[in-house]
Each structure stands twice: as C-alpha cells, then as structure tokens.
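In this section we walk through a basic example: taking a raw amino acid sequence and producing a predicted 3D structure, encoded as discrete structure tokens. The instruction is simple. Fold the sequence below.
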Amino acid sequence: MDKKRTINPPVYSPHVKKAVDFTYQNLNEELSLERVTEHLNLNKSYFCKLFKHHMGTTYTKFVNELRIEQGKQLLLETELSILDIALALGYNNPNYFIKAFKQHLGTTPLKYRKERES
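The resulting token sequence is shown next.
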C-alpha cells in the first residue's frame, strides 16, 4: 500500500507518526496495541487517547482499515485465495478478515472479487 493516511492536525505527536510508520512497516505481522505501545515505550491508555485525538479513530480500526484497503488490492490484482490474502495481511484467522472486510465494505471478500471481475 503506497498511500499513507494523512494526519490531520498540522502539529501532531511524534509518537503518532512513529506508530503510523511502524504500522506500515509491519502491516503483514501481528500488530496488537501491546506491540505498538511496547515499541514506542508508552502507556496503552495514553497512546490510545493520543492516537484517537490525532487520527480520529482507534489504533485497531486504523490497522484494520489499512489491511482491508490492501486486501482489496490483492483481491483484484492477484489470484490468491482468501486464506492466503488474510495470512499475507497479518490476520491469523481468515474468518476475522472476512468479518472485518464485510463490516468495512458491506460485502465479503469473495463477492467483492466476483463483482469487480465482471
């Protein structure tokens, strides 16, 4: 994924920038709140408030949105199975990928792929 989400306020926390950079670099790996706060050496509660303030969303939703966007590209540009795409995006459970995809886009990954192919 080449496009990075814009951080809205002109002055933002270096912690948020580091978290966003870390997320893009590790998008295909396990990205828990614990992992990112450990990487930043920050308290989880403080980080959650800071991230939401600057990004307008929670860290977990941010990660899922990035993964879903990347998943959309993989569905259209490759013939990888849904399982392979889910694993490539860092989801340990393909059912969670399908659920997150459907919540975000209102359709399943398979239906999304089939609708775009025709």
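Looking at the output, two observations stand out. Helices lie at 14-25, 33-40, 44-55, 59-77, 82-88, 94-105, 109-117. The chain has seven helices and no strands. In the next section we compare this with other chains.
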